[in-house]
Amino acid sequence: MNPGTNSWKSTSDSVQALELYGCFVVAYDNNISSELYEETFDLMEELFGLPIETKRRNTSEIPGFGYSGSFSFMPHLEYLGFENGGIFEAAKKFTSLMWPHGHDKFCETIYSYCKLLLELDHTVMKMVGSSYNLEKYMDPLIQSSFYMTRVMKYHSPGENKSDIGILPHRDKSFMAIIGSNEVKGLQIETRDGDWIDFEPSPGKFIVIVGEPFMAWSNGRIYCPLHKVTAIGSKEKYSIGLFSFVRGILQVPEELVDDENPLKFKSFSNLEFLEYCNEKGPKMKGAIQTYCGI
Ligand SMILES: O=C(O)CCC(=O)C(=O)O
Ligand SMILES: [Fe+2]
């Protein structure tokens, strides 16, 4: 990504969007075919159509992973989160848990889909590194990341109706990349308090900064509040790839100077996740209370 070239321009635009909005939309249609996109979302219907006892087999110690749904405060949401869907063995393990007799098509489709999102995650990380001249930090961050694929179903509230899908929140992951079927509902809050819609379409993804990434950048990158509204008679399905960084995260010294004093102490992404889980879902600026200076 050399200064002056087109890829450098799109890099600086994207990083600027992360600073202003904490998110940006990627048209990834050259990399993900509409067939793969459609197949993946068709399979979501099949997955969520499994008996609840089967879906409950997907358990995890990590908050936000595993299976959950029918929350009193978010009655339309149901989700399944599993680790490392972009690694074939992990995709296979999740598939066998859901379909003990196997389901090759599901396994191959979800793996291909997650692998593309994984590549996109690495690309975005590298874009940030190149834009801030912090390239040397990016490979170690990527190498200590692990990923959750979380598939979400928002049950329809009914024709001409709308209801809460996910309450306004900031992500506790480092970064998330989300795509959905054609049903709208995800909204991101701007710094001015306006809510903007993510308009889903095949091959389009939204990259969302989580609180740990914002803290790592010493607040240079923004972390937006966002929410989902369940709307109308069609079910909404979305698939997110959420990254988490193991070990201790520390603001790079290059991002600290007299004008930008250190705003966050070193912290652990995973312990932060536990902390938020204990404090409950209402915490909006959790990272500040966790490790803000
Ligand atoms: O389903 C979506 O579009 C967004 C989900 C989300 O914000 C989350 O799981 O943190
Ligand atoms: Fe989120």
UniProtKB/TrEMBL annotation:
SUPFAM superfamilies cross-referenced by the UniProt entry: Clavaminate synthase-like
Domain Fe2OG dioxygenase, chain residue ranges per copy: 145-247
Any Pfam family hit: 2OG-FeII_Oxy
Protein keywords: Iron, Metal-binding, Oxidoreductase
Similarity comment text for this entry: Belongs to the iron/ascorbate-dependent oxidoreductase family.
Source species: Rehmannia glutinosa (Chinese foxglove)
Extent of the signal sequence: none
Record protein name field: Fe2OG dioxygenase domain-containing protein
